[in-house]
UniProtKB/TrEMBL annotation:
Molecular function per GO: ATP binding
Keyword vocabulary terms for this entry: ATP-binding, Cell membrane, Membrane, Nucleotide-binding, Translocase, Transport
Protein name as catalogued: ABC transporter ATP-binding protein
Species this chain originates from: Ideonella azotifigens
Keyword Transport: yes
Amino acid sequence: MKRETPPASVDTSLLATHDLSVRVGERSLVPALSFTIRPGEFWCLLGRNGVGKTLLLHTLAGARLPAAGLLQMGGKPLADWKLDELACWRGFMPQQLHDAFATPVLDVVLQGRHPHLSRWHWEGEADHALARAALARVGLAGFEARDVRSLSGGERQRVALATLITQDPPLALLDEPLAHLDLAQQLRMLTLLQDEVRQRGRAVLMSVHDLSLAERVATHVLLLPGGGEPALAGPVAQVMQADTLSAAFDQPLRCHTLDGHRWWLPL
Ligand SMILES: Nc1ncnc2c1ncn2[C@@H]1O[C@H](COP(=O)(O)OP(=O)(O)OP(=O)(O)O)[C@@H](O)[C@H]1O
């Protein structure tokens, strides 16, 4: 009798870690983290100052080696990725942005297209159109010719988001992208990212300190409790519990519902 061959399992993960550890010197920041990010998921990375969010994001972006464990992108170990392919797969928006030279804003945003261009090819009309559209989406139409060094902190952060949108990776890693933004721009950026996740099946992992904004947009939360404790990773309702968050932030916290949103306040 002929045996049926089972269908090969399809790995739908954009990023997966298996017992991944992050250390700095002798200090264990994140021990044995196993979690998976899939298309359509919006992850918020939470934890108090100095707990290891930035170093974890750098590790997940492939910019820093883990102390132990496995990191896979699209089911493939990170070491098996070519750099240019990786740059199309995941985007990274750092916390600190440094501009050494006078550069027009449009050229900065066009850098998002570089991973998509073959060697020796310049950006074309379509790339310029994508960059201009991204600037318009972050509310910076008309800023194309401005020297990037003349921008305010919040404007520079929005240019970084426009660059990420122009890069258009399936997975976006962002380190405190709301840090320099006023309230209206914070909501604008979150709505823009949420649209990418919900309407285009992209995925986001971003570190953020505002628990109420995290609760508003996240589908999943990765919480670093610190003190060598294992991270908690899961759906937002599972991880964002008052006792869990209060312990992680070493501060009593309560959640109140107002106008259909949940607001986290310190006691
Ligand atoms: N090169 C380094 N050498 C020594 N310690 C470092 C180095 N880089 C980072 N650290 C330490 O590692 C810890 C984690 O840093 P990280 O920047 O990841 O924290 P974070 O959770 O992003 O903090 P924040 O919320 O303040 O941005 C901190 O205590 C920091 O001082």
